[in-house]
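Journal club prep — side note

Before the paper discussion, L.F. wants everyone to see what a predicted structure for a comparable chain looks like in token form. Sequence:
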Amino acid sequence: MKVELANDNESRATGLMYRKKLDKDSGMLFTFDNSDHLSFWGKNTYIPLEVAFITKDKVISSVREIIPLEVRVIRSEIPCLYALEVNHGFFESANVSVGDSVEINGDEVTFVKKENFEQ
């Protein structure tokens, strides 16, 4: 999948806010300098989204829903280095789930099924 990169403070702070649509098989990949408990919310976001929290080993640790205009904070349960925001329902339709890993090559993200993931 093709993604936009949010890899500096300004792009991470803005994310997908203020947008009215997101192409079907695209998303935004947030990259951070250090693993931490990452936080997201739906303030100023008009698109129903999901966010996958991804560890430094590039394993999806959790997937959470982001509700448009909701100010409730969503946090990763464990320290993560990446977060991938996509349209709500993308992960289910693409058969991507917790424990799967991602491969990141510039602005391309691919998913690899993985068995026996333990958190």
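L.F.'s comment for the group: The chain has a mean pLDDT of 94. Keep this in mind when we get to the figures.
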